[in-house]
Amino acid sequence: MSLDILNTLTPKPAHVAAQPGSFAFTSPVGVWADAGAGDVAALVQAELGRATGLAFQPADAATAQLVLRLTGDDAASERYTLRVSGRGVEIAAPAPAGLIHGYFTLRQLLPAANWRAAPLPGVAWRMPCVTIEDAPRFGWRGCMLDVVRHFSPKQTILRFIDLLAMHHFNRLHLHLTDDQGWRVEIKAFPKLTEIGAHRPNTGLGFATTAADPHDGTPHGGYYTQDDLREIVAYAAARGITVVPEIELPGHARALTAAYPEFGCLDTPVEVATYFGISRDLVNPLPRTVAALETILAEVMSIFPSPWLHVGGDEAPLDHWRNSAEIRDYMASLGIASAEALRTHFTAQLAAFLETHGRRMVGWDEIIHYGGLAPSSVIMSWRGERGGMKAAQAGYDVVMAPVFPTYLDYAQDEGTDEPLAIGLGATLEDVYTYEPSARWPDQDSFARVLGVQCQLWREVIPDDAHLEYMAFPRACALAEVGWSAQRDDFAAFQQRLAHHLQRLDAYGVNYRPLAGPRPWQKGGTGRKAYQPRFNLK
After folding, report:
1. CA 201/CA 267 separation, integer angstroms
2. Given CA atoms 345, 350, 353, 355 in this order, what sign does their dihedral have?
3. Quick check: is 339 catalytic?
4. Marked catalytic residue, from 168, 198, 251, 309
5. What average pLDDT score do residues 86-113 get?
């Protein structure tokens, strides 16, 4: 069998040693798993059985074609060893997470048809003999998905999880609340979804005022708590932790539209239909903080993630300064400024989450206000300096700079591209991003947990557009996060050209390397290419 498939693995493994010969699964495929690896065995049997049409079933270790072995020496490890010989396949790892990564690498050794939902006739499920020893560079390899600006049904998220797992991502950051909608059911506050989960229409392009052109079409949706528990379980089975984001104190207009008493204005507001920075903050008064703690407690009951993201970005404090009630509250605390009150507010959230065993995550503005717990994590989005400052102050950091990790920016400057928020993040820009390149000292760089790409959806209105903007750039960022040693970009492109056959089999609406397909172009209508910002 040709060994060319070994040169298509994405992200690139740490060490690949080709061996002579090949091995083919034949039905029935016996699977043996160590105690503690039963969930991984179930995933393998269900997914490969469906795709290949072969009967994957339990067997003893001596006769199994596929062995899943736990070495048990590091429960937090994601490393694995994958061995394919003429007798069968063995995946060995210290922990189930490593077995999962080994399984997804195994699927890349098989014909791309194993990513289809049903078997094709005549496919031989053969792979080359090889030993692969692999481990990730970073422990946080994330993707942020905004389901507020444009809502995605549950099935889209499950599909997206499959694609993340294929590329060894291990964090799905769900942006669940914002000015334009509230997407998580909170039983203590039902109006959050009754009122906050929908809007009468949506601004076209990057509309920033109600006077800008709108589409006239109602938009909305939310996830029940059981929907989200299903998403969490589905992701966990594929080695991915779902990190929820509840934006506070800004980006909160959907919350204050549902419950005006938690806002700062005497007049009610509606869920926003346009984008940009809203001045509609929650107020920092005790009744509101108590309500927020109730909301966060329900969120924590759904998401077992050690991390809970509270946003903290783009929160102008004018309404706090202008509220007589808030000024009186500041005076009662002996707080002299809105900025100091913001520190107090952040400290309350951080303490509450820490009491419940969770780590607060915030966008990098939050580092400037203080009030953080020592365990807080800073997500550096306004370039890299915020992350550097946070790391030098002793906080863990996730690198998520606008350039080049914001995948809502266009993939090329050509006018054929569909609607994007701005110019500036090519596939090469993403692949050649090196988080340590401008870091001032290696001691503080040790605080960098990893990297994350962002899919903000102001101008990504549907699922096909979402996949187009995400792939193949997410393939490139996956390698930034996983592979300690990367190829040059030309070599990556050669591997990626083959890897895209796997995305074809899964039916992904990715952007081809040569540019958009005719039906992916922006045209002259609502998806016309009108970049508002320029990253470069």
Report:
1. 21
2. negative
3. no
4. 251
5. 98
